[in-house]
Amino acid sequence: MKKIELDKPLFALSVIFTAIILCYTILNPSSAEAVFGAMFHWVCYDAGWLVLLAGLASLILCIWISLSKYGKIRLGGKDAKPAFSFSTYAFMMFTSGVGSSLIYWAMGEPMYYLSDPPMYAEAGSVQASMWAITYPLFHWGPTAWAIYCIPGIPFAYYLHCRNKKQLRLSNVCEDVIGRKNANGILGYIINIFAVFGTMCAVSTGIGFCADLICSGFNTIAGTPNNLISQLLVVLAFVLTFTITVLFGIKKGVAKVSDICTYTALGLGLYVLIFGNSQFILSYYTDSVGVMFQNYFRMSTWLDPVGGSPFPHDWTVYYWAWYFAYLVMMGLFLAKISKGRTLKEMILTCVIAGSAGCSFFTGIFGGYAVGMQTSGVYNLIEWMNEMGTSPAIIKLVQTLPLGSIVLIVFLIVEFFLMSTTLTSATYSLSMMSSKNMSVEEEPSNPVKIVWAVAVGGMSIVALLMGGSISAIKSVTVAAGFPMLILYIIIMIAFFKWVKKDMKKATTAENGDIIIHYDEENDSKEK
Q1: For 162-195, what is each residue's pLDDT tens digit?
Q2: Under a CB-based contact definition with an 8 Å cutoff, are residues 478 and 203 in contact?
Q3: Domains (ranges, CATH) in the chain?
Q4: N or C: which end of the chain has fewer CB within 10 A?
Q5: 505 pairs with which residues across the strands?
Q6: Long-range contact list for 492-497, CB < 8 A, 24+ apart?
Q7: What is the pTM of this model?
């Protein structure tokens, strides 16, 4: 059996770079806040137009590729068969991209929009309530999942159609930046930023989730919600996703994703049935209509004359955050998509991901807005007095059998976060493994090393306390270079298919089969 080893230079340089940034942030919090705050402002305000256009372009490109001849390309060749059922395939995509943040923000985000609404609406007005879950539906909708999906296209083609074994991002960029650069200093810089962006992106959700779970335990068992209890939750995350990745994709990640998604769906249906279902369904229908009626406006709104900070602090921030997931989503989508066509991969990711987020946002967000606007419960006041996490816990308890529902809610939150961390660990393990084909599993030592690294990053971010905003700013700043890399890897993809389509054949079912000849391709170069 071939031994798959860790790329020690890449791992060491990535961890050292991350450690330097974290140490600087911890030791010089005021300076870090200023520096990273300036970076955040530049990305979200000065370059916000580019981030928004890149998000919209990602959606348009996904739609175009799926409907074009390229969408018929079968990943892995004529005889390749999907390794997972369609439901498991969709569930893995969904749980890898949402974490625990989805339900957290599904309830919390609408309250912020009621208090400080977009599009010039007055706080607490009917117009404000019109946007309250419209924007969460938008922020967790098709554009978000298109940003996630785009890197999966070149990664999947590179690994399954060109049968490459180099899983590093720099190697995917090779046909654009040159082989010498891909394997040299520039390549290491690209890979280090990719690793750093992934680790920052997943760690930003840890603080929210740990605080939420500890608030729940505080309500149920009276345990304190302090730094020690939150650290214990993070350590539980580390143990859970370490065990999951050691079992591999089929026996670990796939099964946890299935169980987690079915439990979450059951919880959502319970809220819909025993909450105010008439209001939730009516409000959701209305909000979906508002979103699609204003989709292009929301996709480009920056308010340069009125000067509203809303699109910069929310929409641009979200898109930049999603761009930071380039390697994690690219490699993970590629890993699980063999045997699918590009069209299947794209539409499953964008539609299933958006539908899942829409389900939870519509139900949990609708329930929260219904309680707030009807005057039954004042969630905004609870958030101002207690904080977002305790307010969400208190709202969950207002449901029938509230204590039992709360326990299920906390379990769902825990495993949603764990599955996202599992996907991140798995992708980083693949990227930093030497000479590993996409069909193979990273070695257990490599998985453990990255599980510890991701867990360590999350713990440090938690220890930073008030400086967590600095890490969020760093994540946004890390997401911007990823945007540039998005362009590079898509240019590489179109160079590949333009050349490979000349020798491609069409199967009886209409699928396009790529016959890549690496030897001749190398001679041409």
Answers
A1: 888 777 889 899 999 998 998 899 998 898 888 8
A2: no
A3: 8-524 (1.20.1740)
A4: N
A5: 513
A6: 492/154, 492/158, 492/172, 492/173, 492/174, 492/175, 492/176, 493/153, 493/154, 493/157, 493/158, 495/175, 495/176, 496/154, 496/157, 496/158, 496/161, 496/162, 496/175, 497/70, 497/73, 497/157
A7: 0.90
